[in-house]
Amino acid sequence: MGKIIIFGLGFVGITLAIFLASKNQNVIGVDIDKKKIQVLKKGISPIYEPRIEHALKKALMKRLVFTNKIERISKDDIVFVTVGTPSKKDGSIDLKFIKSVSKKIVELIKNMSDLPLVVIKSTILPGTFEDTIKPIFIKNSISSKNIVINPEFLREGSALEDTLHPHQIVIGGERKTAKTLEKFYRKIYSNKVPIEISNHTTAELIKYANNSFLATKISFINSIANLCQTLPGTNIDQIARSIGRDPRIGSLFLNAGPGYGGSCFPKDVKALISLIKKRHLGSDLLISVHKTNLNQVKIVLRLISKYVKPLKNSSISILGLAFKENSDDIRESVSIKLIEKLLENHVKVKVHDPKAMKNVEKVFGKKITYYKHPKDCLKNSNCAIILTSWKQYFSLSNKEFSKMKTPILIDTRRILAGKKINVKYIGLGIGE
Ligand code: UDX
After folding, report:
1. If you measure from the C-alpha of residue 154 to the centroid of ligand 1, how many angstroms do you get, rounded to a whole number?
2. Domain boundaries in the chain?
3. Are the CB atoms for 416 and 396 separated by under 8 Å?
4. pTM over 0.85, yes/no
5. Which numbered atom of ligand 1 lies nearest the CA of 153?
6. CB atoms within 10 A of CB 413
7. What is the CATH number of domain 4-198?
8. Which residues of the chain have pLDDT under 50?
9. Which of 128, 200, 216, 317 could join 172 via S-S bond, C-beta 3.0 to 4.6 A?
10. 122 to each of 95, 128, 199, 421, how far by Cα in Å?
């Protein structure tokens, strides 16, 4: 068995590198960002994930190295591509990193008679392999038969755990090549993990269908939650619990909230919409999913305006800045969008987050005030808004809320619903 080479050290790449090293594979992590490599070499993770630095340090002592330059690939190596595919203005994805890494791989393997296995984990729209990746190889007279599509389903905040226990593995490619990767994964994972083998394009689409369906579930439950808000005595969590018992619906991803954020759902829904449009098919469903999601921040703002009067010059505390708990990621975070809207309304914004404050400071600098403890963030405030379900917010009590100027709490995740706290409590999706 050769070594593992991973191009692109974002969430997926770093997690995969650590995981495979822990499974006794010799791993080389490659990224063009020199600073990132320097940091990783020291055992410091550029991303926050629970337990990641401990796992990274352990892997570095064993079989993991990082570099920004790779000189050689051997035929027995497995090359993983985990570079980002960011959104372009029209919603489609930017393939510049996919193209540059493909070219780099071509350069390294062009004189080899036996080719290594190349595994594309980056999220790419259906047709990208056929229309973009394959031609780069063919143009250089290199067969593309050893390239497979292997989408990743890990979630931020539980990236290591999800990599350790995937619910399935999808491999798209020529059967023989796909079987080679299947054999590799079977050595690592239990026989119970289902492996779906398909052609390249189907595997590409599985990833988008998966994420778009989950986003649809969230926008659906958010629509019902907004309706609940107007129906006294109704409760979205009870509705979600009840409909979730229907096995045809399922209980997961029915947590109403301020809307989905992060590096995947917003980007993937937009990309699928752009593809459907290109094919001249009506894309009303996903456009609605996307619009419903964008509207959620306005719903939160409307709630604030209803209870905080006047809004201008009021002081508002935002609890939770990361797009989800256990993460420092603020990409497409609803908190960022809400802060922007509050600042437009001349509100004094005070914020707290256990991990994401550094990243938020890069966006807003001195325009808002940062607090290390929720209690200080709430002091003298006119309204508090919980946007992220951090564990520490579940135990907030009168001790923290008692120093507010006007004790109003808008809980978009309903984590303090039913708790005895002396505040005007507004739970998103709980009929007023
Ligand atoms: C998602 C997919 O779950 C994962 O499979 C894929 O590989 C990448 O995209 P991630 O973005 O890390 O993962 O987090 P996820 O837990 O899916 O949450 C995404 C967003 O949806 C968050 O903003 C979260 O708060 C929100 N969400 C999720 C809800 O509002 N309600 C829910 O019920 C679930």
Report:
1. 10
2. 4-198, 265-427
3. yes
4. yes
5. 7
6. 23
7. 3.40.50.720
8. none
9. 200
10. 10, 11, 16, 46
